[in-house]
Structures are given as C-alpha cells and as structure tokens.
C-alpha cells in the first residue's frame, strides 16, 4: 500500500490502460476542502494550497499540504456550508493555541 502522501502506483504507471487518470488529471478535478478556520484549500500540481497564502492569517497556511489529511488545521470539511453547520462542534473542541 502506498504512503498516504504518495499517489497510487496506477497514477504514475506509464503503461496504464487508456482512460486511467494521471496525477495531473486528479489534481485538476480534486474538490477543494475547507480547514477548521473556514479557509478553502485547493489541489494544485505541487500540493494543497490555502486561499489565503502567501500572506496567511493562520499558522501553516503558507506551506502546501501533500494531501487533505496533512492540512495543519484539522478537521477539514467538504464545503463551506459544512464548516458553518459544524461551528458548535468546533467550539467544544480543545484549543490548540
């Protein structure tokens, strides 16, 4: 099994059957995620970047994450709406700072 930060082997296989996605296609079609601060992170060719980079308000937002689980301010959410709906749950979480 590949490491979580590495793409699956079939994405890098030059002789993959037609129609097999390649890493660039996956990056182009990856849905954005929202971190615990409500900032959107989007997939690029060199990792996931926060929308507020390069002048971030939050620690770690100026460094790309290799996968959504590596985004420094967890948990992450599938949409801004989910982030807003779960605000009461975040208030019950211990503060990291």
Describe the structure.
The chain has 97 residues and is of the alpha+beta class. It has a domain at 22-87. It contains four helices and three strands. Strands 1-2-3 form a three-stranded antiparallel beta sheet. The model has no long low-confidence stretch (mean pLDDT 81).
Briefly summarize what is shown.
This protein has 97 residues and is of the alpha+beta class. The protein contains four helices and three strands, in the order ααβββαα.
For the structure shown, list the relevant keywords.
97 residues, three-stranded antiparallel β-sheet, 11% strand
Topology of this protein?
Layout: H1 9-12, H2 23-29, E1 33-34, E2 40-44, E3 47-50, H3 80-85, H4 87-92
Antiparallel strand pairs: 1-2, 2-3
Task: Please provide the count of β strands.
Answer: 3
Average of the residue pLDDT scores: 81
The major β-sheet equals: 3 strands, antiparallel
How big a fraction of the residues is strand?
5-15%
């Amino acid at each position: 099994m590949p490491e979580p930060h590495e793409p699956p082997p079939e994405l890098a296989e030059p002789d993959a059957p037609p129609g097999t996605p390649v890493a660039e296609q996956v990056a182009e079609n990856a849905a954005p995620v929202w971190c615990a601060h409500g900032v959107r992170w989007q997939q690029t060719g060199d990792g996931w970047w926060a929308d507020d980079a390069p002048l971030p308000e939050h620690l770690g937002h100026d460094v790309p994450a290799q996968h959504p689980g590596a985004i420094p301010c967890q948990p992450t959410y599938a949409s801004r709406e989910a982030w807003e709906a779960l605000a009461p749950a975040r208030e019950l979480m211990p503060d990291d700072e």
